[in-house]
């Protein structure tokens, strides 16, 4: 999950009620990490529920760097031709005229992802086969 520094400051201020004018404090960083944990967990749980499976994930860590450096570090284990899913989202904060953009990168393990898709295809095929044929 990535977002620009301006979004980080806005989220940190909204979550802590403290200004970031003098810089982002440890308290702000903790709030940002918790926000990432909440959004990531909700996103991954939603996918797992939809796919009727369990997805293991660790607690997200907070890192401040360029997008290129972050992606190189996070994706170093993935081959260049691996599958990636990228979602651009706008989060609208209730009872506020605030919204901010967040980019979520989902990079599944290629082997496990292919197996999962194969299982979905089988499930769809079985469901379609159970339907009466139209003439």
TrEMBL record:
<dbReference type="InterPro" id="IPR007597">
    <property type="entry name" value="CheC"/>
</dbReference>
<keyword id="KW-0378">Hydrolase</keyword>
<dbReference type="InterPro" id="IPR050992">
    <property type="entry name" value="CheZ_family_phosphatases"/>
</dbReference>
<feature type="domain" description="CheC-like protein">
    <location>
        <begin position="27"/>
        <end position="62"/>
    </location>
</feature>
<protein>
    <submittedName>
        <fullName>Chemotaxis protein CheC</fullName>
    </submittedName>
</protein>
<dbReference type="InterPro" id="IPR028976">
    <property type="entry name" value="CheC-like_sf"/>
</dbReference>
<dbReference type="Pfam" id="PF04509">
    <property type="entry name" value="CheC"/>
</dbReference>
<keyword id="KW-0145">Chemotaxis</keyword>
């Amino acid at each position: 999950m990535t977002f620009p520094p301006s979004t980080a400051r806005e989220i940190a201020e909204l979550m802590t009620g403290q200004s970031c004018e003098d810089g982002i404090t440890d308290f702000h960083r903790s709030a940002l990490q918790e926000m990432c944990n909440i959004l990531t967990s909700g996103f991954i749980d939603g996918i797992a529920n939809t796919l009727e499976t369990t997805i293991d994930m660790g607690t997200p860590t907070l890192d401040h760097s360029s997008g290129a450096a972050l992606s190189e570090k996070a994706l170093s284990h993935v081959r260049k031709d691996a599958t990636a899913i990228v979602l651009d989202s706008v989060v609208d904060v209730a009872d506020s005229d605030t919204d901010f953009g967040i980019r979520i990168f989902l990079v599944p393990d290629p082997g496990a992802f292919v197996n999962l898709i194969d299982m979905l295809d089988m499930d769809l095929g079985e469901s379609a086969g159970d339907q009466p044929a139209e003439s």
